[in-house]
Amino acid sequence: MADLVLFGDVVTMDDAKPRASAVAVENGRIVAVGSDAEVAPHIGPGTIVHDLGAACIMPGFIEAHGHPLNEAVVLGEPVVDIRPVTIPDAAGVLAAIEQAVASGGPEGALLNGWDPLLQKGLSDPTLQWMNEMSPDAPLVILHNSGHAAYFNSAAAVAAGITRDIPDPEGARFGRDESGDLDGVAYEMAAVLAIASPQLLSNADRFPQLLAAECARMNAAGVTTVSEMAFDPAMRPALEAAAEAGVLTTRLRLYETSGPRRPSDVAPGAGNDMVRQVGIKIWSDGSPWIGNIALSFPYLDTPATRALGMACSHGHANYTKDQIVEISTPYYEQGWQIACHSHGDEAITMVLDAWEEMLGDNPRPDHRLRLEHVGAMRPDQFRRAARLGVTCSLFVDHLYYWGDVLVDDLFGSDHGAHWAAAGSAVAAGHRISFHNDGPVTPTNPIRNIADAVTRRSRSGHVLAPEERIPVGAALRAQTIDAAWQLFSDESIGSLTPGAHADIVVLSANPLTVDPDALADLEVRATVFAGKTVHGSLG
Q1: Contact 503, 61 (CB under 8 A)
Q2: CA 417/CA 398 separation, integer angstroms
Q3: Which among 427, 258, 230, 254 has a CA at the least distance from the CA of 326?
């Protein structure tokens, strides 16, 4: 007999039976989906039964490109949250920095979320300003994109970083004309090098921090999330957290590429709770700091001039040959590879590299991934589809930065077509959406609304021809996201044998007005048959 039976408006995301009115769960797995009459035989004396009325029952949402292990740390003490979603104005940001320095003592201050494009009135911090803010104690401010960090001289000393330090692979430390550090670290390896002393200060609290992160995910209806910048050094802490029973989301790990290639573990290492499925590389950086490789220039506007990006085409982190050199050892080991690529020139470079690699060593169903793909063009989506390369879109950029993309950075021709989900679907892709936490808060419901309406926060519609139907948007947060993670056999749909990972919404996304999609509520989240958020009663 079933442990749990739910009656309601069921959207299964299973093409064989897309709609139903009841779901039965036993031992953490779906055992029956269908009509009330079809599921009724699974109800016994010990079965818990909930009639959810008009509420919508769906498979738990999947964040195909997240950073939960890193987000757990940067959203916990001692890191101060100054993201635009927390502090929208420059005055508030500056006040928070002053307060953090004053209360940080000799250990210093670490803040996350600096974003001059959204927090109008800020400009990039200089080394002189950072040293004036905190003359003696370390001060590190992480850019909201995660692709840059600003630091003072005391922070460099604490991290053991001197002018003679070589730049890490695919990253760099900014330097002035004389070769001295200028107080900026670019890209992941350099950012982590400067921030690690303070980030590691709460390492002993990692299980509690990860539990809080899982709770945030569950509140958004998420039951599976990828970690797209997994450091193998975190494996012992992650295993300890899993053993402590704090995980209420499934984790899919993508190890960061490094000079020591390939990985020390085999593809698929782990289990259905925590599994390593891929490798992550970066071809370029962030549109918000100007280091993405574009075929067109940034506009000449006050915003781009303040950030030093006016008329620039940006740049890539690597050459095509270097992408081949990095990708091939992992690919030959059997790994799926996910490559961060925003600019259209960077995307061309990666597709050129991977086409060469695939030609030398064909592999069926490799599911190589392009991540974010902000400036990806229709012809590039078609080419990627022909190569079997799939795409994950940061569609929430449209909501938060939609006006910035058009008015400040790229104009209507390029900025309005950012995150072109319509072109991706038209090319035949099985896409996913993501929030890239902590850049924007995990919110699959708004991602779905973003893709369907393409409305910015101000209400402007960006490239309406790139809108997609609600059903396609739901797939991007459920079954197609699971497919990208090589996990569609057990998550992403409500079908017998799948994990009983379920989200209950206030109404059916397929039947509400598209303009009301973002207002849908997560009433409850069920993970492996247990309620981990909200209530089914």
Answers
A1: yes
A2: 9
A3: 258
Chain segment 16-40, per-residue pLDDT in tens: 999 999 999 999 999 999 999 999 9
Instruction: Work out the number of other CB atoms within 10 angstroms of the CB of residue 239.
Output: 12
224 DSSP β-pair partners:
62, 250
Output the six-digit token pair for 424.
Answer: 């991706």
DSSP state letter for 200: G
529 near 4, Cβ under 8 Å? yes
Give the residue among 507, 504, 500 at the shortest CA–CA distance from 535.
Answer: 504
Lowest mean pLDDT among 56-70, 152-166, 199-213, 246-260: 199-213
- Are the C-beta atoms of 442 and 436 separated by less than 8 Å? no
Please list the residues that pair with 230 across neighbouring strands.
Answer: 255
Q: What is the mean pLDDT of residues 292-316?
A: 95
User: Three-state SS for 280?
Assistant: strand
Helix orientation angle between 206-219 and 235-243, rounded to the nearest 10 degrees: 70
- Nearest CA to 396 out of 354, 350, 451, 342 is that of 451
With tokens 């891929």, the residue in question is 278
Among 289, 287, 352, CA closest to 318:
352
Strands 4-11 and 19-26, sheet pairing: antiparallel
Apex 476 CA angle, 473 and 479, nearest 5: 120
CB neighbourhood size of 96 (10 A): 18
Q: Alpha-carbon distance 446 to 451, whole Å?
A: 9
Residue 366 backbone phi and psi in degrees, to 5: -80, -25
For the segment 334-385, what is each residue's pLDDT rounded down to a tens digit?
Answer: 999 999 999 999 999 999 999 999 999 999 999 999 999 999 999 999 999 9
Give kind and range of the element (H or E) at residue 80: strand 80-81
Residue 214 DSSP SS3: helix
Confirm if 45 and 3 have CB atoms less than 8 A apart: no
Q: For residues 100-106, give the mean pLDDT.
A: 94
CA distance 111 to 118: 17
Q: Evaluate if residue 203 carries a pLDDT over 80.
A: no
In this model, does residue 313 exceed pLDDT 80?
Answer: yes
Please work out, in degrees rounded to the nearest 5, the angle formed at the alpha carbon of residue 31 by the alpha carbons of 28 and 33: 120
User: What is the DSSP code string of 89-147?
Assistant: SHHHHHHHHHHHHHHHGGG-EEEEEE-TTTSTT--PPPHHHHHHH-SSS-EEEEETTSS
Cβ proximity of 383 and 351 under 8 Å: yes
d(CA 447, CA 395): 6
221-241 pLDDT, tens digit per residue, is 999 999 999 999 999 889 888
Q: Is the dihedral of CA 491, 247, 31, 447 positive or negative?
A: negative
Provide the percentage of residues in the chain whose pLDDT is more than 90: 93
492, 482 in Cβ contact below 8 A?
Answer: yes
Give the DSSP per-residue string, 496-518. Answer: TTSB--EEEESS-TTTS-GGGGG
Structure-block tokens of residue 50: 């909930």
**What is the average pLDDT value for the chain, to the nearest integer?**
96
